[in-house]
Amino acid sequence: MQFINTLSITADARNWLANSHHPRILHIFDQVCNLINERSEVLSIVTPQIGNGPFNLVVEDDILFSEHLNLESPISSSPNLLNLGDLTINTSNAEFWSPRPDWETLHARRDDVLALLAKLPVTNYESPVSLRSVQFSNSLAPALANAELPASLTATQKLAGLGIGLTPSGDDFIMGAILAAWIIHPADVVGTLAAEVTEVAAALTASLSAAWLKSAGRGEAGILWHNFFDALISVDAIAIQLSVKKILSIGHTSGADALAGFFGVFTAWAGVFRKNLVGV
User: What are phi and psi of 102, to 5 degrees?
Assistant: First the structure.
């Protein structure tokens, strides 16, 4: 039995541990073990190299989960302890991490954010091949930029679950687009828009991708997006480019697809912004 301490945990992860009665292992990778409970809620146990996320429990050791676990490994829990195969994970001293970026500041500076994004070499970034021929992604961006809920839902129904992998390209595009909407629109508008769009998308895709979409719908994001948003607030050009590069490295095309959605909505909103300036 190997004993491991936890570095950080989110509120969702704590709730998962407290309220899951029949959990099972969903995926095992070297640095990630995803668990799922009877309500199809996901908990990701990750190493420090992966870092914080909306439903992540970050352990302090760079352990290889694939060497310790299989899909049939037993799971049990007690207050502040999670027994996973031959691993015992202690959560009592974990630091709380909030997955919500500073949307209020980002929204207040949305014009400045738009100007910063326009200077980035990836502003005209195109989606990977899997999305280039899909018109639904092109219709979702302007719908979200204009906060048009019916049009957003129609495009989402066509885009959700499109592609292959644990988080299909269509889902990643939607997630990035929703994160952009949190910056562009005031909280009372985007709260409803994001929740309804991601609820529709989550029902049309697999468990892990649905978890990421629902988190985005609540205004939550992973650490690499937090770093990107912090860099935008600080107007640090080098940090902005570095954070974009790190997001692009996520998965095979996951980060690229998400950035395509993010920049797509901002590009669409830029057109709205220009029309408002000239009164057209």
Answer: -80, 75
* pLDDT reported for residue 227: 98
Query: Residue 62: its pLDDT value, please?
Result: 86
Residue 25's φ and ψ, nearest 5 degrees, are -80, 130
Question: What is the phi/psi pair of residue 165, to 5°?
Answer: 95, 175
pLDDT computed for residue 122 by the predictor: 55
Distance CA 176, CA 6 (A): 29
Contact 127, 41 (CB under 8 A): no
What are the domain boundaries of the chain?
2-96, 103-278
pLDDT reported for residue 120? 81
Question: What pLDDT shows up at residue 272?
Answer: 62
Distance in angstroms (rounded) separating the CA atoms of residues 211 and 202: 7
Name the stretches of the chain with pLDDT < 50.
123-124, 127-133, 277-280
